Amino acid sequence: xxxxxxxxxxxxxxxxxxxxxxxxxxxxxxxxxxxxxxxxxxxxxxxxxxxxxxxxxxxxxxxxxxxxxxxxxxxxxxxxxxxxxxxxxxxxxxxxxxxxxxxxxxxxxxxxxxxxxxxxxxxxxxxxxxxxxxxxxxxxxxxxxxxxxxxxxxxxxxxxxxxxxxxxxxxxxxxxxxxxxxxxxxxxxxxxxxxxxxxxxxxxxxxxxxxxxxxxxxxxxxxxxxxxxxxxxxxxxxxxxxxxxxxxxxxxxxxxxxxxxxxxxxxxxxxxxxxxxxxxxxxxxxxxxxxxxxxxxxxxxxxxxxxxxxxxxxxxxxxxxxxxxxxxxxxxxxxxxxxxxxxxxxxxxxxxxxxxxxxxxxxxxxxxxxxxxxxxxxxxxxxxxxxxxxxxxxxxxxx
Length: 399
Hints:
Elements: H1 2-64, E1 69-76, E2 81-86, E3 91-95, E4 110-113, E5 120-123, H2 130-133, E6 136-137, H3 152-167, H4 169-175, E7 182-186, H5 193-203, E8 207-212, H6 223-237, E9 241-246, H7 261-279, E10 286-292, H8 300-303, E11 310-313, H9 319-330, H10 341-347, H11 353-369, H12 377-398
Parallel strand pairs: 7-10, 7-11, 8-9, 9-10
Antiparallel strand pairs: 1-2, 1-4, 2-3, 4-5, 6-8
């Protein structure tokens, strides 16, 4: 009996020893795995730090690089040599770095030159004025053709002149005609000329460049012509594009023999504009829209076919047009059932689209003044009296 208990005790000791050995092995494996994971993390951190070190060294080396001189390429002699004009004035025959692409080396391009050997090390893009880049309309206008009332015929003409050549140029090729080069919109103020241009910009995927005519009139000699030239070059780079010149009469008024130096500078700008209108291809991806309130003072040279092939009059709206415009501007308004838009269109003869929009806004303001949530017919009558009376007073003041 004593031997049996002794053997049992020995077996239990062996089992406990084996359990302890296994536990020790598991702990060692866990430690090994933990160390391996820490090693991997440290290796990743080491690689990241090495990359940062290399990046900082490269940045430091770049900052230590001596500055380049600015020059202008005059002529390309062969694949390895060129004639340049330095910023100080003299001309030199210099070497061309092997990494420079030869198609980038065109006469007149700006280049970076080594300080000592004057070798061409870099080709710079052509400078562009910030105000020209700012003329690009980044956000597409929200105006649609359905937001313009009473101008169905004019909408058709502007779509044929601007939208169709950009979206379907093959149609003109099939029938063998050139699309109109440009379109000139003229008419009284507030009749929807700018709205039409915005609607075209919305309907096409073209870059829309908006220019005010007075922006082309510059202070110093030659600046206005250079601005015109750079605007058209910018439009070609952004093609397909639409150039909209608003208030073109500021720069394209009739030329006279006598005048001040400022008048002569405006004439130089006009001649550059005429040159650009003649120069670009009619079937190209650059379309031109211009607008003016005073077509009677424009120079005949800009009105001839070949420059603005279509001259479209935007007249004051007719009775049907006024009714349509009132419906457009009042479609989101909460109107009383008694409001009669037809009678309102009848008594607003001579009002422009902008006047009718102002009448709708004023009618809403009268309703707000009386703390009402609906606009009544009498609000429109008061608004008509206010807006049209103010328009008559302004007309009487300027006459």
